Amino acid sequence: MDRKNREKEMASVLLSAIGIGFLSTDDVVNGFVLLLESAEDTALDVLDAPTELAYFLARAVIDDVLAPLNLDEIGAKLPANCNGSETVHMARALLAARHAGERILRCWGGGSGSAVEDAKDKISKLLEEYESGGVITEAIQCIRDLGMPFFNHEVVKKALVMAMEKKNNRLLDLLQESFNEGLITTNQMTKGFTRIQDALDDLALDIPDAQEKLKSFIEQAKSKGWLPPFVSPVLQAAA
């Protein structure tokens, strides 16, 4: 927290990487609890420590290291009258904001960094190749080779937008196979669909029937198990 934005972004990327297979959710929860308990002392040296911690918490949720419900667990573990509770509340507010995923991913300039932009470019290219007649096994391998499972909601988002634009439901077959292989989780699917819903007004400028198409995609996703039967209020409104 006492370093520059580049180091903060690197720390979040590292947490995302080691949080899959190396650290348990309890480890991450307890780590944040310790940080929040000592936030007042940290603020003596890092004045904006509470705000930075809120962004780290929100980013952990966006990166699929923590689930939203883990924020409640963290809050419940804090001592009474601990200022860390305000930081948890701030993290919830960040996640509830419009276009939260995009904003939090870019909170330290990560969106302009090579790793994220490179991943987005590779995702676009693999989807374009698959849409134009590519082999599904090769597309699946390309997604796996990205090595960023916490960012697979970008695959979902771009695939859905391309399916709307190209009127090609073949892209839904790719999502189905990715889900079947456990490559894209229900959580990542939900994030991808939610990001589409957040951007629906802009999408409708180029795709007039975007709302109807999204509704159809949501129903298909629920029937195939990609999305839970009871989706988030945002997606429920779209459906």
TrEMBL record:
InterPro entries in alphabetical order: ARM-type_fold, Initiation_fac_eIF4g_MI, PDCD4
Gene3D superfamilies: 1.25.40.180
Gene Ontology cellular component annotations, sorted alphabetically: cytoplasm
Regions crossing the membrane: none
Boundaries of every MI domain copy: 1-76, 118-237
GO biological process, one term: negative regulation of DNA-templated transcription
Family membership noted in the UniProt record: Belongs to the PDCD4 family.
Protein name in UniProt: MI domain-containing protein
Protein species of origin: Kalanchoe fedtschenkoi
Taxon lineage: Eukaryota, Viridiplantae, Streptophyta, Embryophyta, Tracheophyta
